Amino acid sequence: MKHRKSVLLVDVANSLATDINTGEFTAGMWLKQVELAERYRCTRSEVRRALDQLVIERLVQHVPNRGYHVYAPNVQQRRNISAIRAILESASAKDIIANTSAEDLAMLQACADKFEHFTLHGNILQQYEANMAFHRALLAPCANQEMVELIFDLRSRVPSAALGQWSSHARIVQSSQEHFAMVEAIAQKDEQRLATLITQHILQENDKAR
């Protein structure tokens, strides 16, 4: 019974995350638990647990004594943080290449494969988690772990799993292709290529979806 409840929680959270990402619930909209329970055919307590999960994912915001609403992102803040991340992460290209072992590269390849799988067969939360795993593996070999901590602190300041991270499914597919290109650049020890790919990936330059 406990397993069933945990599965149901994931299903409700994924369904709500998908509906937020596709615009069924827009930024700033208040989410009524009674209506969500009816929509997803579950109990209010199950809805509440799913909402709390999406608070952690920064898709939903909880206001004490008022309830939950869809996170309303600050577009300029997102752009500013992406610009800073691009500078820091592209500057890490030399560090990444110098310290990536064969085992690290194999792990990064596996993370790229997993993200590609979820672009075809996964939901938005699975795609988000796989993307984060790739970026953790990409930066893990860096000697400058203080910079790595700063980069992930910056990532935590904006909504994560949806709400603008990817503009379309085509952009998700393109992100997967960029992951593989970064793996190849590291294997070839091409520092400049890796730095360029990281910048394009973060800023979503050359976006075929646009």
Automatic annotation (TrEMBL):
UniProt superkingdom: Bacteria
PROSITE patterns: HTH_GNTR (PS50949)
A GO molecular-function annotation: DNA-binding transcription factor activity
HTH gntR-type domain sequence ranges: 6-73
InterPro entries xref list: GntR_C, TF_FadR/GntR_C, Tscrpt_reg_HTH_GntR, WH-like_DNA-bd_sf, WH_DNA-bd_sf
Keyword Methyltransferase among record annotations: no
Cross-referenced Pfam families: FCD (PF07729), GntR (PF00392)
Keywords: DNA-binding, Transcription, Transcription regulation
Keyword Lyase: no
Protein name according to UniProt: GntR family transcriptional regulator
The species this protein was found in: Winslowiella arboricola
Organism phylogeny: Bacteria, Pseudomonadati, Pseudomonadota, Gammaproteobacteria, Enterobacterales
